[in-house]
Amino acid sequence: MRIAAPIEIGPLDADAQQAVRDLAKAAEAYDGVAPLSEQPLLNLGTDAEWITHVVAHTKAGSTIGYAQIDRSGETASAELVVHPDHRRDGRGRMLLKTAERDATLPSRSGEPGQHGKQLRVWAHGDLGSARGFARASGLRPVRELLFLARPLAQARPLAPVDAPGLPEAPPGYRLRTFRPGADDAAWLRINARAFATHPEQGRMTLDDLRARQAEPWFDPEGFFLLVPEDAAGTAEGTADGDPVAFQWTKTEPGQPDDARDGEIYALGVDPDHQGMGLGRLMTDVGLAHLARTGATRAVLYVEGDNTPALATYERAGFTRAAVHVQYARP
């Protein structure tokens, strides 16, 4: 019989990656919420200086716990999961302590992705068990990410989502869909500008974009750009022809027809064009597109302290469905 180390740190081979995915599915089935968000799942195959994978095993080698520490930002971010059958036996504390050591060890070079950073830990769904674990570990909430939802059958006074077409662009602008390859650089520029203060979205790279384009849910027909009308037909984005706003939708395949979520995955407005109602326009574009593709509910994530975005989404009929909390030591 193989006797596995209780904790292993290092890159994950294909089998180890699948074992983590299976672990996450088991935890989601038990808790009702996914323990790992999209980016950590995309990072499972990443072997780089800024990321650490920590796996907890049984003596027989079964994967029963996992932690991923991402040190690419100003602070280190971690996501942890323990199998429901192996909780309350110290493995969660062991994963947390390992993550804290990994994040806070003194950095020798000071380069991005190195150690010596404060650790923040995500708790998805804000479950009572996670709150108790955080309190017992001396962690306190430092950030909220809200999960909002609205039924797509709900009436809209200005732009009904069951209309056959999309809302019209304002004079001087044109709405078109994203062209993979041709629009990558232009979209990365506006995304960085629109999310300059966001700890994750604003740091998206070309590799991150390409990884999402390779996912089965990606559909450029659900990715909309608002561009200056005289630049809408150019082959490549230019400084004058870059989008001024965008709406990226996401619908996971395999959902039942009568309960299909469509996500407003990312919505951004260039700071120089804010205050013109473009956020509401692009929200309506996303809702109309999701409705015509058969989604029955629209969902999205928004920062709990993003007052302007919350006001836009509340006017569009969204209400809070869940909350995800990030914890850190005081």
UniProtKB/TrEMBL annotation:
Enzyme class: transferase
Source organism, top-level taxon: Bacteria
Keywords: Acyltransferase, Repeat, Transferase
Transmembrane segments: none
PROSITE patterns per the UniProt record, alphabetical: GNAT
Occurrences of domain N-acetyltransferase (ranges): 7-153, 173-330
Residues the entry annotates as binding 1D-myo-inositol 2-(L-cysteinylamino)-2-deoxy-alpha-D-glucopyranoside: 38, 200, 250, 263, 301
PANTHER family: ACETYLTRANSFERASE (PTHR43877:SF1), AMINOALKYLPHOSPHONATE N-ACETYLTRANSFERASE-RELATED-RELATED (PTHR43877)
Family from the record: Belongs to the acetyltransferase family. MshD subfamily.
The protein's name: Mycothiol acetyltransferase
